[in-house]
Amino acid sequence: MGLSLALCRSTLRAEPAQRNNDWLMFFPGNGGRVQEDASDDFPNPNPEAMTDSEQDWLALKPQEPSPSQCCGSGCKPCIYDVYEKELAQWERAKAMHDKSLLMGKKEQSNNSELNPDTFTAFSVSSVEQLTEDTYQYKFELPGNSSLRLSLGQHIVLRGVVNGLEVQRAYTPISPRNAEGYFEVLIKCYEAGLMSQYIKTWKRGDVVFWRGPFGGFPYQPNKKNTFWDLNLPVHDLLHGELLMLASGTGLAPMIPILQSITDDEEDETFVTLVGCFPTFDKIYLKPLLQDLARYWNIRIYYVLSQETSLEKLPWSYQENTYAGRLNEDMMKTIVNSCRRKPFVLICGSSAFNEDMSRYLKAVGIEENSCFVF
Predict the structure, then answer these.
(1) GO MF annotations for this entry (predicted)?
(2) Mind listing the pLDDT tens digit for each residue in 151-210?
């Protein structure tokens, strides 16, 4: 498996000043938008009253996304895939002079069924502030339903700030088998557009998600899925995952850890290294402490802005490093692994690049790494 680096970028798009709600049903991928040059010349159209003219069809044509409108997370379908599908649908309808062929999927749904093509409404059921800038949000699912995500999958959030549409990808931290809810860990940035939108959330608010996308192809006790099959048999029986997470990069690691600890037959060793600025900014401490009690789970913390560990609770002092995770520290961690590790990496682009470089320096090649 090659090293695949997916960066999350915000997507921005102008929001028309006025919109006919019925108009939203036409093109889910581009937000039901009409071409800007056509919509400037014509008022919000009523499909039933429109004439079959070239100008009318131009107003119905989906608008091609700009490069900045792709969140860069490897979504399948990507916003460009959705656009191509909508364009083909429009061309077919135009050739047949039949606008009813455009009355397909809606841009958004309220049936709480997650869908990669359309945005679905979910209600915020609780907001918990974990640090000064990071929050844990819980969303309701009807009855005992579940998102049914595969491990490591992410979903895409849509928000509108000052007339601009923004999309961002987040990985739920709730267990795969969680029923009736899902949870997301989000860090808010002072100048972030999406952060401005997220900070307004309160219990009962409705927000829109689509997905799922991506994922890590983990299988319990299937160690030959990860690394070199030329290794001796005893090295393949019980391998080890080495997880390197910076900040909210912890999110995709949590469901994988929970999946392993929930399966009594899974004997995979796991070493998680969480990198945070200070002890107070470690997320989900109670959950991580509970996971660390399992025989096959080890958790280390690397605190870049701590100069001394003496004031930390004694239960953290032995498994915490002060300073930044560097090549020497990486060598110590890799050498402490009980088996040849397969490495999962999630953080900023700079963090991911640094970790890949350190791992290569200590003998871990790209085919033994996976970058979220």
Answers:
(1) cytochrome-b5 reductase activity, acting on NADH
(2) 989 999 988 888 777 888 999 999 888 999 999 999 999 888 899 999 999 999 999 998
Ramachandran angles phi, psi of 354, nearest 5°? -60, -45
User: Which segments are annotated as binding site for FAD?
Assistant: 168, 170, 185, 187, 194-195
- Please give the pLDDT value at position 13: 35
Verify cis geometry, omega within 30 degrees of 0, for the bond prior to 77.
yes
Query: pLDDT tens across 72-85, in order?
Result: 556 666 767 777 77
Binding site, residues? 168, 170, 185, 187, 194-195
348 contacts 246 by C-beta, under 8 angstroms: yes
Exposed/middle/buried for residue 251 (C-beta within 10 Å: 0-12, 13-18, 19+):
buried
Supply 25's token pair. 């049903």
Read off the pLDDT of residues 303-320 as tens digits, 9 standing for 90 and up: 999 988 998 999 999 999
All residue ranges of the chain with pLDDT < 50 are: 1-50, 66, 68-69, 104-106, 109-111, 224-238
Residue 162 neighbours by CB distance under 10 Å: 9
| CB-based burial, 257-286: b 16+ in 10 Å, e otherwise | bbbbbeeeebebbbbbbbbbeebebbbbee
What is each CA distance from 186 to 33, 131, 201, 275, 288, in whole angstroms?
A: 29, 11, 12, 16, 17
